[in-house]
Amino acid sequence: xxxxxxxxxxxxxTSSYQVEGGFNEGGRSLSIWDTFSRIPGKVFNGxxxxxxxxxxxxxxxxxxLIKELGVDSYRFSIAWPRIFPQEGVYNEExxxxxxxxxxxxxxxGIKPMVTLYHWDLPMWAYEKGxxxxxxxxxxFLEFSEKCFIELDEYVDSWITHNEPWCSSFLSYHxxxxxxxxxxxxxxxxxxxxxxxxxxxxxxxxxxxxxxTTPIGITLNLTPAYAATDSYNxxxxxNNADGYTNRWFLxxxxxxxxxxxxxxxxxxxxxxxxxxxxxxxxxxxxxCDFFGINYYSRAIVEYAGNTNLLYNGxxxxxxxxxxxxxxxxxxxxxxxxxxxxxxxxxxxxxxxxGSAYNDVLEVDGSIHDQERTEYLEEHITAVRELNDEGMNVxxxxxxxxxDNFEWSFGYxxxxxxxxxxxxxxxxxxxxxxxxxxxxxxxxxV
Length: 444
Ligand code: IFM
What we know:
The chain has helices spanning 16-19, 32-36, 55-69, 80-83, 92-107, 123-127, 135-151, 164-173, 184-208, 231-254, 259-265, 279-283, 328-341, 369-387, 430-441, and strands at residues 9-13, 73-77, 111-117, 157-162, 215-220, 224-226, 289-293, 298-302, 310-312, 347-352, 392-398, 417-420, 425-428. By secondary structure, the protein is α/β, with parallel strands linked by helices.
């Protein structure tokens, strides 16, 4: 049985809005998620991130848990409204929170991987048009520059954006995430400005600030498979892949948008003038690594009555509590494809994990066998990929804790630590114990 080498990074991940709470503490202003979660019907059970798992106040104890878990690295994100509660108004107290967290991690021997944007756009930015306003690139740069200047010395690697597909299409086209708009043109503009802000932030760190800290972007990629071999289902799979994966991979790695999708989108979008001539050069700037979040494959079939001509189709795979297929084989196929079609950069799996309906036993144990199997299967896939020379440099389990799962509120538990949301007590699930063993022995 082969082992992970000493350089391989095992980590775990969270994001600011999902764990911090302290929504009105330390000079933080409101984000789009504070507002969206208060709109009846947008989030399951009316849950909000006001308190979340109170990581803002409990971060020291949480870092001790990460240390006990034994992982090499911890990935977290910075809440933009803590740093710039209003346009152009810097909040030192907010920055000090992240400095303290970083110092705590470093003292515990844990490498910090820091994401700049994991969806908590300040309301002041939203009120000026949010990501559909090209000025969002300027606002994001002001925020990034301050974070780079203040925090770069503590940070092991930077991620500009987490899952631009979610912060653009899911948020501005499908309306499932904040701010809840349902307009395809807005989705495309948001995606473009988010990608552009990524490219500009990378240039800022490397060229203006002359930093050598590695920086990259994280995409959520969902390999799509056709329900049948029919010609119609082949169109469906092409479009699903274009909308979910290629619309982001192509500009980042090839410096162009896929023309088949431009063609399809042009049925619904008036003009593409928001894409300026130099933008794609900026978006395809050289990075140091590529982050992939992988959860599941998708099976799709032709649906002539939909804008993109596809719908999700039936699959007989076993499912997580999100209804997502457990699909480690397709995970490997995705990485082969990235290597063949897109990049040789080191890949970090910046998220991978599963939600299940956990039961807290009276003795404080949680026997989450399905999650344990899920992580074993996916980490085995990573090891096999590396045995085949695919250069996966690290794996971050999502998530460290049960937390605010966006429109599902606290209903879906992704953590390897169970959180009692009433008492804020943390409990080791069996999956956390198993992950600890995998990390310690560097074998699955
Ligand atoms: O919880 C989310 C995370 O914020 C982004 N990636 C997917 C996770 C599970 O849905």
